[in-house]
Design brief:
Shape: globular
CATH architecture: 3-Layer(aba) Sandwich
Distance between the termini: 23 Å
Strand order of the largest sheet: 3-2-1-4-5-7-6
CATH class: Alpha Beta
Strand content: 15-25%
Radius of gyration: 17 Å
């Protein structure tokens, strides 16, 4: 992705007192500062459990639910929206979760500079910004060369799972992911809904607007 083009826009949002308290009290423990150099996940999490990265977790509620239901996995959330980070930290505190870490930075730079090759067991991308206007399509996250960068971070057998309620973005992403040599679509076209994924606020909003949710599920293999 062109370094001058961002795939996100910082949203205005209220940073509640509870979110701020959680941010202030848990940031040192749970937030990995952005810095060039590969992260040692065993050091960061204190174990060798599988690592799943989520790009753009929003308010983090689905992230917290998945992490709580899968304590045998580690979850790395990448987000730029501080109120959302504060909310996820609040969820971590309320649920006593030890298997979530956060990087507060642009995902493209994080993957380029901090994620070791073949280190991730999965990547989750739930309802990324669709940038619906045609002139903004260049800002969409799931396109080459970033899709190649994502694939390089996956271990063989790991998966990339994307969900969107924008049909043209889903079709574009399907083409872009199909073009990555070391990724294979697990399904014939769009994926079946994954029953373990909690419904998100963005998903409910899209369904209320009669948007159809489409899922993409790709497996990394030895190229």
């Amino acid at each position: 992705m062109d370094r001058g083009i961002k795939s996100y826009a910082l949203r205005a949002g209220r940073f509640t007192a509870a979110q701020r308290r959680s941010y202030d009290s848990l940031a040192e423990q749970c937030i990995i500062p952005f810095a060039p150099g590969f992260v040692n996940f065993e050091t960061v999490f204190g174990n060798a459990h599988p690592v799943i990265a989520e790009i753009g977790f929003g308010m983090g509620i689905a992230t917290a639910i998945i992490a709580a239901e899968n304590p045998h996995n580690n979850y790395l959330g990448i987000e730029v929206h501080r109120p959302g980070i504060g909310r996820l930290l609040w969820e971590i505190e309320q649920r006593s979760l030890a298997n979530i870490r956060i990087i507060e930075h642009d995902a493209a730079e994080v993957f380029e500079k901090m994620i070791p090759p073949r280190s991730l067991d999965a990547i989750h991308i739930f309802f990324p910004d669709p940038w619906p206007k045609k002139r903004h399509h260049k800002r969409r996250l799931i396109k080459r060369p970033f899709t190649e960068t994502l694939a390089a971070a996956l271990r063989p057998g790991a998966y990339l799972y994307m969900v969107t309620d924008w049909e043209d973005y889903a079709l574009q992403a399907l083409d872009e992911l199909n073009a990555v040599m070391c990724l294979r679509n697990k399904y014939d076209g769009f994926a079946q809904p994954q029953p373990w994924r909690p419904q998100t606020k963005f998903e409910r909003k899209g369904l209320e607007q009669n948007h159809q949710v489409r899922e993409l599920f790709f497996i990394a293999y030895e190229n």
